[in-house]
Amino acid sequence: MDGARLLAVQLLSPAFPTGAFAYAQGLEWAMDAALVGDGAALAEWLGDVLEYGSGWSDAVILSLSLRPGADHLGLDDLARAMCLTAERLTETLEQGRAFAATSAALTGSSDAPAALPVAVGRALSGLDLPRAEVIALYLHGQALNLIQAAVRFMPLGQAEGQRILAALSPLILQLAARAAEASEADLGGCAIGADLAQARHETMQTRIFRT
What we know:
Shape: globular
CATH architecture: Orthogonal Bundle
Low-confidence stretches: none
Structural class: mainly alpha
């Protein structure tokens, strides 16, 4: 394994300091409303988010941001437009800002604030790694962040959470391969339940997560 690949793993690890632990993309509301109450329901929810919701949108925008000559300012506008709720927009902008500030010291890339998938693509574009590999690492980290949120919120052990993540691997690899060759025309999806959960999370009086 070469240095560029190890650096990509470091940058896309859920432990990288972006504050991702504070966000759950509406999953907290879904768990509170008993729509996601066990491991099976969580796995189904995550699969849908990855394939039809924010996972797919982020994967395509990341893919476009990794390409030579990418218009990162334009892609940042596009990434913002794909956020359907105020909380989701805050999440991607704040994580993107934190990612850019820290990754710039490691990659020499711009530290200008940007939506998370754009900031990631901009920072990793110079590593000369296959796009599908970078996208898979990104989606894997996003899925793990949500699983860790579920572990903290409901009766779900760490072992069960890891089993769910492992079971999502084939889907993550499939989506990464598709997104690697995608264009702007492939953006879009239909994860209505997750979008409504994000909106309803904004009105919760007591909550652990910011989204």
